[in-house]
């Protein structure tokens, strides 16, 4: 397990109740602790952590935030760059969701109309968000065994990260953007791509829309979107396919056509590589 917060918890008296990888580099763990008093320290873990208290925590205190304590449904957002020292006392049960910075910022283009490099996850201790806490409870209630159940857990986790983005995203302090696309141009390209996913989208066509050379567009696109053009188009095609499979009854061939895949076999291969299950099975799982 490569997540530093997880490794730190393993070095304490905490008991690991549950752990699973959900795909896409997402993971979650449920921990229990019973201790008189113990100091736990996190230092620039390199990944983000969302912590949701499930029980106890009434005497768990973070250094620098005296007089504030945990409680069930209290949330903490611990960004990749943060450092913190926690005095843990008595009983505590909590869930950690581990995710990488790109999980948080990549959706900024679509959901907040901001460049990924503009935003960061805030370092917040003991905040309240009933919707987010409810999603954590749903994740806790979901089984974490088998591809079908892990896919459901993946969907819940992505919903939680979207809520977290809207609630705890902040513009980076002293931000001075260099390079990249002008906001109007980034917006224009994003909207054009979404409107033409059913077509063959080429770097040349995007460069023509931006009035830039292909070389310059490729460099500036990656800066502003966090992915190269082909990677962004592939991501949006999977997102479109997921939406159509969740909300409609189109035959799989029509879904493939609407998302710009060459044929049904190509669609199935790409979708399974991204989601872990073929599109037909995904539809069955998410629609219950």
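^ structure tokens above, recovered residues below v
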């Amino acid at each position: 397990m490569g997540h530093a917060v997880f490794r730190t918890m393993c070095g304490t008296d905490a008991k690991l109740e549950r752990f699973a990888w959900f795909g896409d580099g997402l993971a979650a763990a449920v921990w229990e602790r019973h201790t008189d008093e113990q100091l736990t320290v996190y230092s620039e873990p390199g990944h983000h952590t969302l912590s949701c208290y499930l029980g106890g925590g009434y005497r768990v205190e973070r250094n620098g935030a005296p007089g504030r304590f945990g409680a069930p449904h209290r949330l903490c957002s611990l960004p990749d760059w943060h450092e913190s020292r926690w005095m843990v006392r008595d009983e505590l049960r909590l869930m950690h969701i581990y995710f990488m910075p790109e999980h948080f910022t990549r959706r900024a283009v679509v959901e907040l109309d901001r460049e990924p490099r503009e935003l960061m996850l805030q370092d917040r201790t003991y905040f309240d968000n009933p919707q987010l806490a409810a999603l954590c409870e749903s994740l806790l209630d979901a089984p974490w065994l088998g591809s079908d159940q892990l896919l459901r857990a993946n969907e819940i986790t992505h919903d939680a990260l979207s809520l977290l983005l809207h609630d705890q995203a902040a513009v980076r302090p002293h931000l001075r953007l260099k390079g990249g696309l002008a906001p109007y141009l980034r917006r224009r390209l994003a909207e054009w791509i979404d409107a033409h996913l059913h077509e063959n989208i080429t770097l040349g066509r995007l460069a023509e829309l931006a009035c830039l050379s292909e070389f310059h567009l490729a460099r500036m696109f990656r800066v502003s979107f966090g992915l190269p053009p082909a990677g962004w188009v592939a991501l949006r095609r999977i997102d479109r396919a997921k939406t159509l499979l969740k909300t409609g009854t189109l035959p799989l061939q029509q879904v493939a056509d609407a998302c710009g895949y060459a044929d049904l076999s190509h669609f199935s291969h790409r979708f399974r590589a991204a989601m872990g299950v073929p599109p037909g099975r995904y539809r069955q799982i998410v629609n219950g």
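The first strand starts at residue 15 and ends at 23.
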